Amino acid sequence: MRSLRLPVLVVLLVVVAAGTWYVISSRGSRNAPTLPVYFTKMDGTSLGRTSVSLRPPLAGESAAEHLHNTALYAAVQAVAGPPGDVQAIRFPPGTRVLGVEVNGSTATVDLSKDVENTPGGSFGETGEMKALVYTVTGVAGVDAVQILVEGNRLETLPGGHLEIDEPLHRSDW
Amino acid sequence: MKSTNRFIARTGSLAAALVALALYAIAPPALADAPLTASYQGRAIHFTHLSSQAGTLAVGVEDPGLAQLLRGAGAFLTWRPGERYVLITTSVPVVVSFAIGDPRYDIGPIALQASAAPFLVGDEAYLPLREVLRCLDLALRQDGNAEILQPQLSTLDVRQENGRVTLLAHAGVPLHARVVAQAPGRVEYVFDGVGTSLTGTRQVNAGGVRAIEVVAAGTVRAPSVSLSVTLDPNATAQSPQNSGARDVALAFTAGPGAPESVAAVGASPTPEPEPFATPPSGPAAITGVTVTPGSDGIVVSIAVSGSAPFEWHRLREPDNRFWIDFSNAQLQGAPIDRGADDPLQSVRVRQIDPSTVRVALSLAGPKALAIEPSSQGMQITIGSQDVADEPRSGSGSVGSVVAAEQNGGEVTPAPLDQNAAGSSESDDSAWKFGPHNGYVPTDPRLIVIDPGHGGSDPGTQHGGVSEATLTLDMAKRLRAILVDRGWKVKLTHDTNVDVYAPNDSAHDELQARVDVANKAGARLFVSIHANAYINPGPYGTTTYISKPEDLPFGHIVAAQLEGDGTKDDGVIKAHYYVTYHTRMPAVLIETAFLTNPNDYALLTDPAWREKVAQEIADGIAQYAREYPVANQPAQ
B521 to each of B205, B233, B442, B489, B568, how far by Cα in Å? Predict the structure, then answer.
């Protein structure tokens, strides 16, 4: 009889642990925090926003990892823009986020070369970058966004006007 | 409570670690599944990174077959080892987000449950194949022993506007609707080459459309979808709008005398919802939504037939929106979008994906909300009082509402009025760089004009016209007017050349233009441009500034340009190189859009360019009167 105690104890422990894990997971999904995703309206300056939900931090996920993951999520959402039926200034088709790094309170967002297809004129570049900066700085702990294109820091987009060789802040608009 | 939560969290972490250890001990080693070849529109797609480790077939993010499908769909995947989110941006565009270890996945704002959680095998993330294919509007079907990737008609959205109903069909391939039968009161369409899981009958009863019936037909390899639309006797069906894209619109118009809709929402005196129609069996049906005045506020009643899990969310002040999504549910009736009385502002009801109905409320403030089951389904009571710290989300199923729980402060608030973004009253929008205090022009009668672009950089080119040519022309016209009025004028370049050097860097070129003004100690700096966008929609004149001392000058010039014949977009602050780095008050004027037909006509008209030059000159004169050199704004 005594020989059965250990296996029974192990089984009980596993059942309790699994139950606790399930409850905690469920609580997390019910209370998913949201992230505002900004887009620049077609007047060229005012912002609209949608929201997407985030996952709560994983057990074992460090604060730095969570910040990185959240900033990446924010950048990808901003570059994708709002649903297609929403009138918004959009990044050129095919523009993608190649990577995001967060150092201190600055998120460096590396964009694909497609962003250089932004047409001349300040309308597109300003609207795109404003939406990206507002969205990524909506992540707690991020105050500024450094733009890279294919890993390179540019002074402006080709033919552009906006100075992007230094981190951009919300106060730039 | 917090210590209890910490205890639970710690216990949970310990337990999770134990479970992981146990699973590690008993789980078999991760083995890759055999490769799978599926036929997709006559092509063979080879999936070689497959695993059933999680109990359902999953595909690796580095799978060549997946890469081929993503490319073909105009979608792309964002993930690197060590990252938690695996993100697929579709061509719609919408971001589909998977997270390692979490069976939940999101399509835009909609949270769904996948058949299994994504997992890692070595340095590669594996995603549940069925859900990935769903994101690409595909489904894996079997035809005997052969695997077929079948394009899906994935959404069929019913929209109602001004007594007219439009059915919007979307599929994973270019979609084409053909009319196969038409008789009074009925029209039948067929979509070839797509399958669907949206089968069944939906009552619409709006805009002349009574009901629609979707039937999957054809074979696995040659599927088709039949769509039968039952109409009111006087209703008319317009020809399908086939554009060769993945969306097709089918429009219907109610005949004379037809009721506009039975799907109206209003302050009905009837306390219970009016059903739209008899709900079908199977998924739950949202059969009606009514708004009625309550003792303290407004009551929104949602009639639900059947059982449906739901999840609700509300945003933080100042964005006072609330929405509740019913899963496994069908909207019986036309979508609703209408205003309402305080404390409610608007109500929207629609089928947001094939199995989810969303009821979205816009509130007139951070109002108290009570979500309760009712005999008809659900009741949401919106109080007239503003409250703080309201719960932000909750979930449950109809008839068993789960109490909402507070978010633990994890949401990052963006305290921004979307219509006031950029307002100087906001802390976020405060001037970043501070004033260039005490600038005194060494040549107070000198104006530097910068014709945008030039030389190796033609700027925007459209319709055979280059921006550089136009801006140089306007700059010369402005110079002539100013010289006539006794000003000294210097252009950064007065022929179509680079200011620094051909094919120079943006920095060198822009700094050279700034240097012209700064070295000369000019009074004012004016950079002239023409705007552009990827489509012809945007038009108008915008005056950009960067520094605090630019603001009065910008407002005066923008006011003068109001009457230039196109839309006035006012003054916008932006971190532009030339306006920021010049030490004197500066503006960058985007005079009009070369890409807009009306603006193009203006820009290519010499008389209009002369008029713009005149208005800028008038702005300079007014500014000089209102802000003499001794009283330059130095905020």
Answer: 72, 78, 5, 12, 31
Do A155 and A166 form a contact (C-beta atoms < 8 A)? no
For residue A172, give the DSSP letter. G
**A111-143 residue pLDDT tens:** 999 998 877 678 888 999 999 999 999 999 999
Chain A residue closest in CA terms to B568: A43
Question: What is the CA angle B53-B56-B59, rounded to 5?
Answer: 75
Sheet order of strands, B223-231 included: B177-183, B186-192, B223-231, B209-218, B200-206
Cα separation, B525 vs B537, in Å, equals 30
Q: Full-prediction pTM beyond 0.95?
A: no
Query: CB of B246 within 8 A of CB of B265?
Result: no
d(CA B417, CA B484): 46
Q: How many CB atoms lie within 10 A of CB B489?
A: 21
Q: Which amino acid is at A77?
A: Q
Q: What is the largest CA-CA distance in chain B?
A: 91
Q: Which of B83, B181, B197, B74 minimizes the C-alpha distance to B139?
A: B197
A1/chain B closest Cα distance in angstroms? 24
Provide the terminal-to-terminal Cα distance of chain B, rounded to the nearest Å. 51
Coil vs helix vs strand at A79: helix
Q: Inspect the interface and report whether the beta carbons of B16 and A53 lie closer than 8 Å.
A: no
- For residue B198, the one-letter residue type is L
Residues with Cβ within 8 Å of residue A61, at least 6 apart in sequence: A69, B84
pLDDT per residue as tens, chain A (173 positions): 556 677 777 777 777 666 655 544 444 344 457 888 999 998 888 888 888 888 878 778 889 999 999 999 999 999 999 887 788 999 998 899 999 999 999 999 999 999 988 776 788 889 999 999 999 999 999 999 999 999 999 888 877 788 888 899 998 88
A148 interface with B at CB cutoff 8 Å: no
The rounded Cα B103 to chain-centroid distance in angstroms is: 25
For B386, list phi and psi in degrees, rounded to 5. -75, 140
**Are the CB atoms for B110 and B356 separated by under 8 Å?**
yes
**Residue from A24, A46, A123, A137 to probe the interface with B (highest B Cβ count within 10 Å):** A123
B160, two tokens: 């109602």
Cross-strand partners of B330: B285
Q: Which residues contact A84 (CB under 8 A, 6 or more apart)?
A: B92, B93
* CB pair distance less than 8 Å for B510 and A21: no
CB-closest option in A43, A61, A168 to B575: A168
Question: Tokens at residue B337, please?
Answer: 């979008």
In angstroms, the CA B41 to CA B333 distance is 35
Find chain B residues with C-beta within 8 A of A55's C-beta: 84, 99, 102, 104
Q: How far is CA A19 from the centre of its chain?
A: 32
Using CA atoms, how far apart are residues B560 and B599, in angstroms rounded to an integer?
A: 18
What's the CA gap between B579 and B526, in Å, rounded? 9
3 state SS of A105: coil
Which residues are CB-neighbours of B418 under 8 A, at least 6 positions away?
A38, A46, A47, A48, A49, B319
